[in-house]
Structures are given as structure tokens and as C-alpha cells.
Amino acid sequence: METTYEYKLSLMLSLMWDYNIPPGHCLEVLEGKRERAGHYNEATLFRKLIESYSWFTILSIITPERILELLTDSTIQSLRFKSLSKRYEFLRSRLQKNLRPSG
Fold this sequence. Notes:
Layout: H1 5-15, H2 23-31, H3 42-52, H4 55-61, H5 64-70, H6 73-78, H7 82-98
Helix pairs in contact: 1-2
């Protein structure tokens, strides 16, 4: 089941509750269609996303392929909690294994 655009916007609005940044701009940054939303770039916004939402919620917002692009060593190392760092190192290894082009 595909997540609606309105639902994604509501998640962005909740994520950015303390900033006056349009939720659509945030979604566009995460999708790679825009460079910045307020003072956030894709790396800082993605870090905020993974520190705030569950894995399955994140999957409902952006594709696994885009997650793999954004889930860099730098992002993982910048997470505030070591338990999250370990979890996302594991998830990145699984994404790399499962999203490898076949052929």
C-alpha cells in the first residue's frame, strides 16, 4: 500500500513542529528534489528523520533506494544515540545486500 502525499506531509509537519518550514519543502529535500528546507540540507534532515521516527515510518516516507543514498557513514556516526548507530549500520548492510542490481 502506497502512502499518500498528505500523510507524508503530516509526518513532515510533526517532524518540524518547532520550525516554520513548509512540510512540502522537507519532503522535497528528502526525495532529492530540493537542496534545502530552511536551514536543513538532506543530511541534517535525514538525521532528524531517523532520530525521530521508526524504520517502518521512514520507509513510508522515502524509498529504500533513497534511504541507502542518504545513510552514509557520516550520517550514522552523527546520530546522538549509539544504539541507533548500530541499528542503522545493520540496516544499511541489509539494504546494500538486497538492493544490489542483479544480472
